[in-house]
Design brief:
By secondary structure, the chain is α+β, with helices and mostly antiparallel strands. Helices cover about 45% and strands about 10% of the residues. Among the domains are: about 240-315 and about 330-350, no CATH class; about 355-485, no CATH class; about 490-555, no CATH class; about 620-730, no CATH class. It is built from 41 helices and 15 strands. The strands form four sheets. A six-stranded antiparallel sheet has the order 11-1-12-13-14-15. A hairpin with a 2-residue loop joins strand 4 (about 640) and strand 5 (about 645-650). Helix 11 packs across helix 12 (about 180-190). It starts with 10 loop residues before the first helix and ends with a strand.
Length: about 850
């Protein structure tokens, strides 16, 4: 039992402590006076008399919530009523009283106090896992970490996991016996959810005493961890780094966890052990773990001395004590791939000539790398400087400079660690580097993978690099193909695999073909596939050979890879690089469990669109702002309020319709001429003053003075907005494709029961372009609805028009937290009735 200091000072001091504890308990439980439960609760805590108090508290009497959550929101009249019944009481004083209890009370009193707190908390009582020990530990951490007072420091010093075990035993937490008490203690310290965040409680595990406690009870820790959330399992894997040898078995099991982030953290902790120990603890799981959880650990084993030899032993029938016998086909295939990568691909480093490592040009980064060479990575604080430099990859002309610094620091995982930055670090747009990799960026990465073809082959597997469910996935196959395109020559050991991708039907065939170029072996394989493959392979081979100019070979119709009749005709003719996005969408929708027929019906809603590209490429199709050029007989667009008063519209953009290809959208646009789009960008209403004017080709025009009179959103004046528009580079647009993203009407929702999931998947298909778009579906904005659909109701007094007849003419993400739309009825567009254009802005400033 815990013996507090005052007990050694004699009976008189002990009497003072007991008296002080009684007063502290009364101060803590004073809010129960408003419901006449106070005396029962105090008597239970001080003397352990009966459980009636707990039963009454579970009925949630008035004042119980103040006891359970003293730092929560409580009506002033309630706290005033408590102070009237317990003169001088304040919530602050109640916390001071709690510190006194937690500092000096014996364990049996602490257990009963925790039971009272638990009974008073409705949220805790509703969940079996939220035990009284958890509620008590959480409150101890809350009150002791929330003060700089000496009592707070004394409480933090006293409350160790061992003390919590004693309290658990005294209160019977988890059942009888020391093992149950340890299990209950670890559960209480590790459990985390709202409203019980674990950060403060886990400080009890961060001291030397806490680390020793975990090392003594590693078997119980493994049992507890298996039932906790993925983020807790990851935290445990990180904590085990303080004594990795003691927890090697547990961490090895976590290296095959269902969550990728947990696996990554567990492997990071295991890296602190020597190679032979890692091989030893990982081996038993190779025969039992789910095949989809094998790649991370197998990749590690491929890098370890003795790892490949151990895998070869298993493949040749070697069975250690306690291991199962024969391997299933998928597992055997995975193991053989590791051996191939280690024995063949890693030995083929000279297959691609690489330049010398280019040093960083940034002096500060260069100095950081020099300093890091003396800092051996080991997790925790030692890893932070490496993490910081890893976030500055854009300043490295060659990422091998970072790899070399990590090698010099003694890390065995330098190549893999550097490569994994692609799927673990983000860009300034908060997107994973690998998900936004450009050909220019790939120049900084390709030499690393040319030296480690085995890593390139791993990423060709297509593992998405997801670290936890809330993070965006990385299509690593696309990522590494982008990097392979920068290789000066095709890496011969990868040619067979690249050829199989090139002869496939998914989007990766395009990049694989670019990597292979006119490689003779790959071309011969395509010729063979023309007659020897299945239907899909034969069509793909014909497409590829036609692209290469093979005599007598005719390529298939565009969009063949989606199947007959899936895509609208206007979409099938889009460039293959544009259809790439629909292929990725289909793949991810199927992965999310949407039936294939439902995905295909949704793809039938696809529409072509012209959009801005993130790199600013594409032909020029317009210019922004003034001058306003109109025919002499066309009035300046404005809202007229009478013969002498009107509000002129602001010119936003002038489009050159001749620069827009006829099939670039599915809109019946005029083939040439100028289209002027106007809008007074103000926040007064969703419906903006504005519209469009069409000037046919060859029509004489004159420059028109215009003076809009309104207060633009986010600009000092219309003139300031016009100046900003004129400074904007010319509008350039590239082909794109769009799917519905706005909330659907009831009829459409019934026809597409998986619409919400499909829209969520499509929202992730982004390359950060699309500020301007012509045609296509409307971008969703905060669920406001489809502006094209809503435009059908903008003409009071006119015959009602069908919402499905309305289309988005143009849209502009041109104001902070807002979007502008120009919409028009399709029949009016065909008739060139641009005076019927509706302008809307959805904004949430």
């Amino acid at each position: 039992m815990y013996l507090f200091d005052e007990e050694a000072a004699g009976r008189e001091a002990a009497d003072d402590v007991v008296s002080g504890l009684a007063d502290a308990v009364r101060d803590c439980l004073a809010p129960l006076k408003v419901a006449q439960v106070f005396d029962l609760a105090v008597d239970h805590v001080l003397r352990g008399n009966g459980s009636e108090a707990l039963e009454r508290l579970r009925e949630r009497p008035r004042g119980a919530n103040v006891v359970a959550e003293p730092d929560g929101y409580h009506p002033r009249e309630l706290t005033t009523a408590v102070a009237d019944l317990h003169p001088g009481w304040t919530r602050r004083d109640a916390d001071v009283a709690r510190l006194a209890i937690y500092r000096t009370a014996p364990v049996d009193l602490l257990a009963r106090f925790g039971q009272v707190l638990h009974a008073a908390s409705a949220r805790a009582a509703e969940h079996a896992e939220r035990t009284w020990l958890l509620v008590l530990a959480h409150d101890v951490a809350r009150v002791s970490n929330g003060t700089d007072a000496a009592d707070g420091a004394h409480v933090r010093q006293r409350w160790t996991p061992e003390l919590l075990v004693e309290v658990a035993l005294a209160g019977g937490a988890g059942g009888a016996g020391a093992g149950s008490a340890v299990r209950a203690t670890l559960s209480a310290l590790l459990y985390a959810d709202h409203p019980f965040p674990a950060r403060d409680r886990r400080r009890m595990l961060e001291s030397d005493a806490g680390v020793a406690f975990l090392a003594r009870h590693t078997a119980v820790l493994a049992e507890v961890v298996s039932g906790l959330a993925f983020h807790v399992r990851s935290d445990v894997a990180a904590r085990c780094a303080r004594s990795p040898g003691a927890h090697a078995g547990l961490v090895a099991a976590l290296a095959f966890d269902p969550d990728g982030g947990v696996r990554a953290q567990a492997l990071a902790t295991l890296s602190l052990l020597d190679a032979s120990r890692q091989v030893e603890v990982l081996r038993p799981h190779l025969r039992t773990a789910s095949p989809d959880r094998l790649p991370d650990a197998l990749a590690r084993l491929g890098d370890l001395d003795g790892g490949v030899e151990m895998i070869e032993e298993i493949l040749t029938g070697g069975v250690a004590d306690g291991e199962a016998g024969q391997l299933d086909p998928d597992r055997e295939r995975s193991l053989r791939r590791v051996v191939f990568r280690a024995r063949v691909l890693r030995a083929a480093q000279a297959a691609v000539p690489v330049p010398l490592v280019a040093p960083p040009q940034d002096a500060e980064v260069a100095e950081e790398l020099r300093a890091l060479r003396g800092l051996r990575p080991g997790g925790g604080q030692d890893e932070r400087p490496w993490h910081a430099v890893g976030n500055r990859l854009s300043l490295l002309p060659d990422v091998r400079a970072l790899r070399d610094a990590r090698r010099a620091a003694g890390a065995a995982d330098a190549d893999r660690w550097t490569a994994e930055l692609l799927v673990t670090r983000t860009t300034g747009w908060d997107r994973k580097i690998g998900a936004a990799l450009t050909p220019a960026d790939a120049e900084r990465w390709w030499p690393l993978f040319a030296e480690r073809l085995d890593l390139a082959d791993e990423y060709l597997d297509g593992g998405d690099g997801r670290r936890h469910p809330d993070q965006q996935a990385v299509d690593t196959r696309t990522m590494i193909l982008t990097i392979l395109e920068r290789f000066p020559v095709v890496p011969e050991p990868l040619v067979p695999r690249l050829t199989s991708f090139a002869l496939g039907a998914d989007r990766h065939r395009l990049a694989a073909r670019r990597v292979l170029g006119d490689h003779p072996g790959a071309r011969d394989a395509a010729r063979v596939a023309l007659s020897d493959g299945d239907v899909s392979t034969r069509v793909s081979a014909a497409e590829w050979l036609a692209e290469l100019g093979e005599p007598g070979v005719v390529g298939p119709e565009p969009g063949w890879e989606f199947g007959a009749g899936v895509l609208p005709a206007s979409v099938r003719n889009l460039p293959a690089a544009t259809l790439w996005w629909l292929d990725r969408f289909r793949e991810q929708a199927l992965d999310r469990g949407v039936p294939a027929d439902d995905v295909d019906r949704w793809l039938g809603l696809a529409r072509p669109v012209l959009r801005t590209a993130p790199d600013g490429g594409g032909p020029v199709v317009g210019r922004f702002g003034t001058p306003l050029l109109l025919p002499p007989d066309v009035p300046t667009p404005a809202t007229a309020y009478g013969p002498d008063r009107s509000d002129e519209y602001q010119l936003i953009v002038t489009l050159d319709l001749a620069a827009i290809a006829r099939d670039a959208t599915d809109l019946p646009l005029p083939p040439d001429g100028q289209l002027l789009l106007f809008a007074n960008v103000q926040l007064e209403d969703e419906l903006l003053p504005g519209g469009a004017v069409y000037v046919p080709a060859g029509t004489p025009v004159e420059e028109r003075e215009v003076s809009p009179d309104y207060e633009p959103y986010e600009y000092d004046s219309p003139e300031a907005l016009d100046e900003a528009l004129r400074r904007t580079p010319d509008l350039r647009l590239v082909p794109g494709v769009s799917l519905p993203s706005c909330p659907l009407d009831a009829e459409s929702s019934a026809a597409h029961p998986h619409a919400e999931t499909l829209q969520e998947v499509w929202s992730e298909q982004s390359d950060e372009g699309g500020e301007w778009a012509l045609g296509g579906h409307a971008y969703d904005f905060d669920g406001y609805g489809d502006p094209a659909w809503g435009s059908a109701f903008q003409w009071p007094g006119e015959p009602w028009s069908r919402p499905e007849d309305w289309v988005v003419l143009a849209q502009w993400v041109g104001v902070p937290m807002g979007i502008l739309y120009w919409t028009i009825n399709r029949q009016d567009l065909a008739a060139r009735r641009f005076d019927r254009v509706v302008v809307q802005m959805y904004a949430n400033p």
